[in-house]
Amino acid sequence: MNKKPLAVYIHIPFCEQKCRYCDFLSGQGSEQLKLAYFRALMHEIGHTDGSQYIVTSVYIGGGTPSCVQSIYIVKIMDALRARFEFAPKAEISMEMNPGTVRKSSLADYKSAGINRLSIGLQSTHDSELRSLGRIHDYKTFLNTYELVRSRGFNNVNIDLMSSLPHQTKEKMEKSLERVIKLAPEHISVYSLIIEEGTPFYNLYEKGELELPDEDTEIRIDRMVRRTLAENGYGRYEISNFSKPGYECRHNLVYWNRGEYLGFGIGAASLLGHTRFSNTRNIKKYIDANGMSGTNVQKLTVNDEMAEFMFLGLRKVEGIKEEDFQKCFGKTLREVYGDVLENQWGMGMITYKDGRWAFTEKGMDVSNTLMSEYLL
After folding, report:
1. Residue 55: strand pairing partners
2. Are the C-beta atoms of 83 and 45 separated by less than 8 Å?
3. Domain 4-254 has CATH 3.30.420.10
4. I need a labelling partner for 306 at 20 to 30 A (CA). Which of 72, 184, 188, 314 fits?
């Protein structure tokens, strides 16, 4: 039997301290709560039929997966391997924060098969890190990075953030320069978004959060793209840059609308034409022993066509006309001709060799442009 490729996401909702900008499903937890959560998580994985799939990537996110005992990570990977066949060169990623790992933890991650680490640095300036509510300083990050490299991890991503309070182009440039000097294989640069319900949102509403103006944001974004390109990091998605061959394969599954299965609270899945997710309530998840699937949505053709567009156009390479026709039996121009013509006329999108892709100008306002593909 030909098995279908599958990406797996594992959600670990625990962290040592919630950052001031964070609206992710995460928080602190007692050891008792963590134990109960992982028991439920193992039960959920253990009662999943993975016989038709071959796992091509795993992403362990959160929260801060590195703030829990490393034995939990080992057990998660053992549970997955007991239920699923893994591709020989499966990408297995895990998020971690500076200062939350030891040599013994990294040895456990290695033994569990983790081969890609994503480190949440965000900034190399201690004043910016304090403003964000991060628990580490730059020196702690450097120690963690050195430790990770010394344990033989050779596929590492570093997260940075732009458009931070009081951030200047010069400060962002310095952060970028320092990170490039470390030569990670992958760099993600996310623009700060003020999310409702966060401490930053409350400050913003009261006019007490000083953010860079739009012109400064644009100058920072252009500098980031130029600097990374000059140093061998190709941009392959709105916020992601890598050395050749080190693109995050797990995230590409999302952007290419491949099938994925999520485990843990709030984790979403897409199998065939159905999207579903687990409860976001940790007590309900634990009480249900991990069997808390909810929010089942049967996707319509219109849903899937819109997703094909706004996920595919996140990628620098864009989308192929023939792929759209193979998926939906209609030409791209039949469905989106007016939108494409309008965006092309404004210089927001380009067409070459059967592919549509946003221009640099289009990438700058991609959120607005993508809303035009909703049917």
Report:
1. 6, 86
2. yes
3. no
4. 188
**Threshold 0.70, pTM exceeds:** yes
Which is nearest to 324 in space by CA: 342, 301, 341, 348?
301
- In this predicted structure, the answer to whether residue 115 has a pLDDT above a threshold of 90 is yes
Q: How far apart are CA 244 and CA 186, in angstroms?
A: 9
Q: How many residues does the chain have?
A: 375
Count H helices and E strands in the chain, helices first. Answer: 15, 15
Whether 19 and 134 have beta carbons less than 8 Å apart is answered as: yes
pLDDT tens figures, 89-103 = 999 999 999 999 989
| Residue 291 to residues 12, 60, 271, 282, 321, Cα–Cα distance (Å) | 16, 19, 17, 12, 40
Answer with the residue of higher pLDDT: 200 or 328.
Answer: 328
Q: Using CA atoms, how far apart are residues 332 and 348, in angstroms rounded to an integer?
A: 17
Q: Where are the domains of the chain?
A: 4-254, 319-375
CA–CA distance, 123 with 220 (Å, rounded to integer): 14
CB 274 within 8 A of CB 299: yes
Q: Which amino acid is at 360?
A: E
The 3-state DSSP class for residue 54 equals strand
Return the residue matching tokens 């590195």.
66
**Residues in a beta bridge with 9:** 59, 262
315's CB contacts (< 8 A; 6+ apart) are 236, 237, 252, 255, 357
* Cis before 63? omega within 30: yes
Q: Provide, rounded to the nearest whole percent, the portion of the chain with pLDDT above 70.
A: 97
Q: Any idea what the Cα angle at residue 319 is, between residues 220 and 261, rounded to 5°?
A: 90
Nearest to 58 by CA among 2, 109, 122: 109
